């Protein structure tokens, strides 16, 4: 059994959104959205000093911490920007194959993302993949301490599927994803879609450079199970 197949020997597959599923900000770079977000937060008087000025999620977390009274406004602005981005997001090669293989094998897939659930659902609807996904666990409202790398998203996905986190594997493209999986007690598959990531994914249960490798492993595992008398 390959490392990827071993990592997938669980009940539920958890899939990160921006990266393994699509390039969310393909149509408009995240740094441009971050610049507009900073300007908006400045207009409503929310300081975000010290946050990464080019990362919308970092700005959101800083805004909620700085002024909880404006959390709804910050969430609304960022969600609208993410939903708009979902309309021009580029599908990740091989992700549809993963979802098709999981569906054929009867394996539930839950999207787990620090982006808004609305953006995830908008993308799935656009790509006609809504029925391939059992659930969506998006960014928790006004609770940046629950966003990955915290274990909460993995724990919440497992709770909704009525399994333990140990019965899940998270497919993610960042150390943040892997840290969240490890903190929750789940397995992880690192999607090394850029140079240098493979070397950083030391804590992953398995690593792939191509999402098709995961689809192949799901199909092979399903074939083995159905062939067993």
From TrEMBL:
One GO term describing the cellular component: cytosol
Lineage: Bacteria, Bacillati, Actinomycetota, Actinomycetes, Micromonosporales
CDD domains registered for this protein in UniProt: HAD_like
MF annotations from Gene Ontology: phosphoglycolate phosphatase activity
Gene3D superfamilies: HAD superfamily/HAD-like
InterPro entries: HAD-like_hydrolase_sf, HAD-like_sf, HAD_sf
Alphabetical list of SUPFAM superfamilies matching this protein: HAD-like
Protein name: HAD family hydrolase
GO BP terms, alphabetized: DNA repair
PANTHER family in alphabetical order: PHOSPHOGLYCOLATE PHOSPHATASE
Organism: Actinocatenispora thailandica
